[in-house]
Amino acid sequence: MIRYIIISGKPRAGKTTFGDKVVEELQNNNRVACQTSSINRVKDFAYDLGWDGMKTPEARKFLSDLKQICVNSPWGNLTMQYIVREAKAIESSIPLYADPNFPLYMLIQSREPAEIQEYVQTLGATAVFVRGGHREENVNSNESDRNVANFSYHYYIDNTGDLANLDIEVSKFVKWLLDNE
Predict the structure, then answer these.
(1) Could you tell me the pTM of the whole model?
(2) pLDDT in tens, the chain (181 residues)
(3) CB 51 within 8 A of CB 96
(4) How far apart are CA 51 and CA 46, in angstroms?
């Protein structure tokens, strides 16, 4: 079984750091966990099309627009389909020593409220919002960044302090996850 966790937040809020720490803490609790992003496959396309990897406002808009094309394709949400295939491939290769009674935790970074809602409705995902305080950036050049806070998330993480404070937030969140297995 796969448990999907959506991690969202403004640019530089600490989503990746939070996700890395959650994966590590879950693994310390004998769970299998990994992290990916709904934009990864889109970035691959963008590189193929000539994107240089820089996150300028123009590039952020391009990536956001390209992702929306993938999400709203005639064949359904292609980014979600890719993530589900990736999760199932990981699940099928979980080592035999892993306890089959526990889920695979698939952490997915995504910023678009409509896509997050689709993950919640279709896959039963839990949506988490990371607040980064003074580190986060208010980017308004594209729909993805502009609307990231416009969702009613299941869980909110306060990443406004130092790494020790984030560790406390991670421990509370992982305990919550394990209590709700």
Answers:
(1) 0.87
(2) 899 999 999 888 999 999 999 999 999 998 999 999 999 999 999 999 999 999 888 998 899 999 999 999 999 999 999 999 998 888 888 765 567 778 899 999 998 999 999 999 999 999 999 998 777 667 776 777 778 888 999 999 999 989 899 999 999 999 999 999 8
(3) no
(4) 5
